Amino acid sequence: MLGLAFLWLPILLLVGYAFSADRIPFQWGGFSLRWFRALAANGRMLEAAWLSLRIAAGAATLAVLLGGMAGWVLARHGRFRGRALFGALAGAPLVLPEVVTGLSLLLLFVVLQGAAEAAFGWQLGRGATTVLLAHATLGLAYVAVVVQARLAGLDPALEEAAADLGAAPFTVFRTVTLPLIAPALVAGWLLAFTLSLDDVVVASFVSGPAGTTLPMLVFSQLRVGLTPEINALAAVILALAGLLLGLAAVILGRNGRGGARAG
């Protein structure tokens, strides 16, 4: 309980001060919604939030595609030449410091930019696309681990039974394997989405003027000075997260009751 209180009391205090009318972020000046109205009128922050959501959704989708294939290879193809190296490279973003990952990706994009300009005359600037690719690289490792663990826990007899009944390999994957690993794919997508939405370090390395995400904007404003709008933003994010968690709990509860009645 002490640990939970240490975690949640500062968050609740931040949310409480979001409703203060005082201009000083941590000074109570009476109840007011002025900072929520100011947040709604802050075009720069809204644009950064929309960009962060688009990047996070795209990076999570790409991470699920690539990480799902990597997890499938590691779980179902046994021992093959270079398996240890492949697994180490796929999981490297899990253990590498974000500073190292961000710096290495920055160097890669700089080299690619120079090569594209020299070969095709195409100026490949850093921006939202490079941030998306960097975040997909990070999310790939998490998705691969989740999918590999899910596949390792499945009973191969289910797929073998479908194959014995005459189903083609793709049909077996589509009708048996994919529904069984769907929870792992959804969990991996949510992990990659959250990581992308929360990242500051890697995005700071690989982004350009047109790729300022919401965490980067908030961090840059904190250097100048905290404003009550940041408190309001924190309250909105916490409310949205709580709403999504509640919705997920309701859906899972209905599915559980439906399965129990069917049983």
Largest sheet: none
Query: How would you classify the helix and strand content by structural class?
Result: mainly alpha
Low-confidence stretches: none
* Helical segment count: 11
Measured as a percent range, the helix fraction is over 70%
Write down the secondary-structure element order: HHHHHHHHHHH
Tell me the fraction of residues in β-strands, as a range.
Answer: under 5%
Outline type = globular
Feature tags:
263 residues, mainly alpha
Q: What does this molecule look like?
A:
This protein is mostly helical and 263 residues long. 79% of the residues lie in helices and 0% in strands. The chain has helices spanning 2-17, 34-40, 43-76, 83-95, 98-120, 128-152, 156-164, 169-198, 201-206, 214-224, 228-262.
Care to give the gist of this entry?
This protein is mostly helical and 263 residues long. Helices cover 79% and strands 0% of the residues.
Task: Summarize the helices and strands and which ones pair or pack.
Layout: H1 2-17, H2 34-40, H3 43-76, H4 83-95, H5 98-120, H6 128-152, H7 156-164, H8 169-198, H9 201-206, H10 214-224, H11 228-262
